[in-house]
TrEMBL record:
<protein>
    <submittedName>
        <fullName>Diguanylate cyclase (GGDEF)-like protein</fullName>
    </submittedName>
</protein>
<feature type="domain" description="EAL">
    <location>
        <begin position="23"/>
        <end position="274"/>
    </location>
</feature>
């Protein structure tokens, strides 16, 4: 048993070594990507269910690898968060998005994702204020999306930061609602301007299980009672859209309306499948 344990430990250490090396490679590549402007922003339209018109665009980070293919943010954001590189990357996203949107003909709102690390490690209100001044973007055109993870680590401090942000005139959306452990207490802790219902509920909507429908209805009721508009994410089919409309959902976002695309394409396409 002892020998085999030693062997296991050796394997484990070899794995660790590999994991550490892999992380180091990604970190190095991220740093280079930032220095060499290999990051791009894509925009995905958000639409009003009632009018079918664009209400805003979510800003989604893209990393163009050496082969020209895009590397998904889900693959590199966690590493960027662990290494702290998310701070300069997040600052770049904010500045670039505000700069681009300030030059648009139509004053659409942009929604920028914030990492919990950004919320807890920099003087975020000062940075946002500075970027708004620098780019001339009206504060009301900037929405910041935060997930519940950012709230639970240090609720008191986070709500303080969120209040400072709101005082600048920007709005705050609760992202991925319904996936965490304390979505409801999070809503109680801070007056969010929007609830973004996680797209996992949309996927399940097509299945036979009635649970997702019931949960979507319940979230819409909560939004209604608290006067917080609800946006449903990941809307891919006309059936999903019809259900959301019937239940009084306020806004929608998803492949049905438009994929995340480079700025010019997203703006010229507008809302692909006008909800009606
Ligand atoms: P998220 O904030 O929940 O963003 C929505 C994700 O759903 C995006 O994935 C989007 O492309 C995808 N999506 C939109 N509509 C549909 C649909 O109809 N069906 C399906 N299956 N997917 C849809 P993406 O762009 O890969 O981003 C993944 C996550 O990476 C984001 O999830 C967000 O948490 C993070 N992320 C992206 N950009 C940034 C950023 O600038 N900063 C930070 N901190 N995180 C970011
Ligand atoms: Ca988001
Ligand atoms: Ca989301
Ligand atoms: Ca409603």
């Amino acid at each position: 048993a002892k020998a085999s344990l030693t062997v296991d430990v050796c394997f484990y250490e070899a794995d660790m070594d590999q994991a550490v090396r892999a992380r180091r490679r990604v970190t190095q590549a991220l740093r280079e990507a930032l220095d060499n402007e290999r990051f791009e922003l894509h925009y995905q339209v958000q639409a009003s269910v009632e009018t079918g018109k664009a209400t805003g665009y979510e800003v989604l980070l893209r990393w163009r690898g050496d082969d020209g293919d895009y590397i998904s943010p889900s693959d590199f954001i966690p590493v960027a968060e662990e290494t702290g590189l998310i701070l300069p990357i997040g600052e770049w996203v904010l500045r670039q998005a505000c700069r681009q949107a300030a030059a648009w003909e139509e004053p659409h709102r942009i929604a920028v994702n914030l990492s919990p690390v950004q919320l807890s490690h920099v003087d975020l209100p000062r940075l946002v204020h500075q970027v708004l001044l620098e780019t001339g973007l009206a504060p009301s055109r900037l929405e910041l999306e935060i997930t519940e993870t950012a709230m639970i680590s240090d609720m008191a401090r986070t709500t303080h930061v969120l209040r400072q942000l709101k005082a600048l005139g920007v709005t705050i959306a609760m992202d991925d609602f319904g996936t965490g452990y304390s979505s409801l207490s999070t809503l109680r802790a801070f007056p969010f301007d929007k609830i973004k219902l996680d797209r996992s509920f949309m996927t399940e909507l097509d299945g036979a299980a009635p649970q997702s429908r019931a949960i979507i209805r319940a979230v819409l009721t909560i939004g209604e009672s608290l006067s917080i508009p609800v946006l449903a994410e990941g809307v891919e089919t006309p059936e999903q859209l019809a259900f959301l409309r019937a239940q009084g959902c306020d806004e929608v976002q998803g492949y049905l309306l438009g994929r995340p695309q480079p700025e010019a394409d997203a703006l010229s396409q507008g809302v692909a499948a006008t909800p009606q």
